[in-house]
Amino acid sequence: MASAAAIELAHVTKRYGKVVALDDLSLSVTSGVFGFLGPNGAGKTTAVKILVGLARPTAGGGSLAGASFGSKASLHKIGYLPELFRYQSWLTAREVLALHCELAGLERSRWAAEIDRILATVGLADRGGSRVGTFSKGMQQRLGLGVALLDDPAVVLLDEPTSALDPVGRHDVREIIRGLRDRGTVVFLNSHLLSEVEQVCDAVAIVDRGKVVAQGDLAQLLGTSSVRVRATGVSRETRAGMARFGELDDGADGAVVIKGIDHERIPELVSAIVASGARIYAVEPQHESLEERFLSLLGQ
Ligand SMILES: Nc1ncnc2c1ncn2[C@@H]1O[C@H](COP(=O)(O)OP(=O)(O)OP(=O)(O)O)[C@@H](O)[C@H]1O
Ligand SMILES: [Mg+2]
Question: 1, 7, 95, 125: most buried, per Cβ within 10 A?
C-alpha cells in the first residue's frame, strides 16, 4: 500500500535461519536526511535490501516512494548505493553511467547531459573516460554514489557511502547530501560513523540487533547537556556555587564540566562564578555527543 511516508517499514522481521537480522522493526521517514545508525551486524544493510526488494521480509510490510517496497513502481523513483559493489573493471565511468541510464530507461537523448551532470556532482568530471579498474577505492565509491543519483530520484538509499573516502571525500559527500535535501530529495543513510550522521542528518534511528533502540531528531536524542567552564582562581566556594547548577566533573585541561545544566541558566551560572572571585576565560555549552549516547544506549 502507498502511504504518505517516503520510506516506511511496518513490523518488519527478517530471519536468516536462526539469525534474527530484523526484529519487528518499524520506522517511517517523510522528509529530509534520515540516519540509520548501528554497530556491525545490527541489521542496517538488511533493512535497505528489503526496501529495494533484494531480500524478502519474513514478516511485515511497508512502502518506498509511494509504492510497496520492492515493487517496480517504487524502484523507478529511487536511487540506491549498495554497501559492497563492483563495476566491471574494463568499463569507463561514462560507460558505467550509460549502462545505468539504459537500465533506468532514460531517454537516450538525455544520457550525455545527465552523465555530465552526475560526473560533476560526484567530482569525477575529469575522469569520465578512465576505466573503473584504474580507479582508487574512493573514486569507485564516488562513481557508485553517482549511479544512485542518476535521473534525480525522489528517495536515495545510501549504504555506508563514505566508508572508502578520505576526509575531503567525506566532506564532498556531506555537501552532496545537503544539496539533495535542499532540492527535496529524501535520503536514507546507513552508517556506523557517528560523526557523519551527526553532521548531516535531520533525524536518526539507532538500531541494535535488529531493533530500534532510540529514534528522534538529534536534539531530542542528544538532550542531555553540559557546560564546560575554563576559569582561574576557582575556590572551594566557586565550586560549591557551580555545584548548585549540576554535577561537577574535572576536565583534563583544568576546566570544570557542569553536567545536566539547563542552558537557560548559563547567565546565572556566570554571575555566580564571577561573584565568587574567579576569572572566566571560556564558557562552552556542550551536548552529549552522539557517540556517547550511542554507547550508553548499546550498553543498556
Ligand atoms: N544473506 C544472509 N544470510 C545469512 N545471514 C545474514 C545474511 N545477511 C545478513 N545476515 C545476518 O544478519 C545480521 C544483520 O546483517 P546486516 O548486514 O544487515 O548488518 P549491518 O548493520 O549492515 O552491519 P555492517 O555495519 O557490518 O554493514 C547479521 O547477523 C548477519 O550475519
Ligand atoms: Mg551493512
Answer: 7
Q: Look up the domain containing 212 and give its range.
A: 7-216
Reported as a single tens digit per residue, the pLDDT across 114-136 is 999 999 999 999 999 999 999 99
- End residue of a domain, out of 189, 216, 243: 216
Instruction: Please indicate, yes or no, whether residues 226 and 207 belong to a single structural domain of this protein.
Output: no
231 shares its domain with 93: no
State the closest ligand 1 atom to the C-alpha of 46, by its place in the atom list counted from 1.
18
Model confidence, pTM: 0.81
Q: Measured in angstroms, how far is the CA atom of residue 174 from the centroid of ligand 2?
A: 19
Map residue 284 onto helix, strand or coil. Answer: strand
Q: Whole-angstrom Cα distance, residue 188 to residue 290? A: 18
Count up the domains in the chain and report the number. Answer: 2
Q: What percent of the chain has pLDDT over 70?
A: 96
Look up the CATH number of the domain holding residue 250. Answer: 3.30.70
Nearest CA to ligand 1 atom 27: 40
Where do we find the cell 557546560? 227
Q: What is the rounded end-to-end Cα distance, in angstroms, of the chain? A: 36
- pLDDT band at 289, cuts 50/70/90? low
Residues 210, 196 contacting (CB under 8 angstroms): no
Residue 21 CA to ligand 1 center (angstroms) comes to 6
pLDDT in tens, 173-184: 898 999 999 999
- Ligand 1 atom nearest residue 83's Cα: 27
C-alpha cell at 247: 554535577
Exposure string for 149-186, b = 16+ CB within 10 A, e = fewer: bbeebbbbbbbbbbbebeeebbebbbebbeebbeeebb
62 and 126 both lie in a single domain? yes
Judging by beta carbons within 10 Å of its beta carbon (0-12, 13-18, 19+), is residue 277 exposed, middle or buried? exposed
Do 69 and 138 have their domain in common?
A: yes
Q: Residue 25 belongs to a domain with what CATH number?
A: 3.40.50.300
